[in-house]
Amino acid sequence: MPDGWYLTSRPDMAANWEATSGNRFTIQLGGGFGRVFNIGKQPIDASIQAYGYADKPEGGPDWTLRTQWTFLFPIN
């Protein structure tokens, strides 16, 4: 995508084999977007992602919002 923008998805999925069958899996669906840019000479990768749950344990969250800032230190 132009100007350093990109699409991203990194859902977390887990299984608890000791839980009852209806509470065993946690499965997220979703994604987001990010951009690589500079503040001064410092390159930064920033992204935001939103996920809903296709399956979750009883009492688990309905959705998750993830933000991330990564300071990049390229080696030339």
In short:
This protein has strands at residues 5-8, 13-15, 25-39, 42-55, 63-71. 0% of the residues lie in helices and 59% in strands.
List its traits:
76 residues; mainly beta; five-stranded antiparallel β-sheet; 5 strands; 0% helix; elongated
Describe the fold and architecture.
By secondary structure, the chain is mainly β. It has one domain (about 1-70). The protein contains no helices and five strands. The chain has strands spanning about 5-10, 15, 25-40, 40-55, 65-70. Strands 1, 2, 3, 4 and 5 form a five-stranded antiparallel β-sheet that branches. A hairpin with a 2-residue loop joins strand 3 and strand 4. The mean pLDDT is about 95.
The amount of beta strand, in percent, is over 45%
Order of helices and strands: EEEEE
| Oligomer designation | single chain
Q: In terms of structural class, how would the helical and strand content be classed?
A: mainly beta
Sheet having the most strands: 5 strands, antiparallel
Stretches where pLDDT is under 50 for at least 5 consecutive residues are: none
Total domains: 1
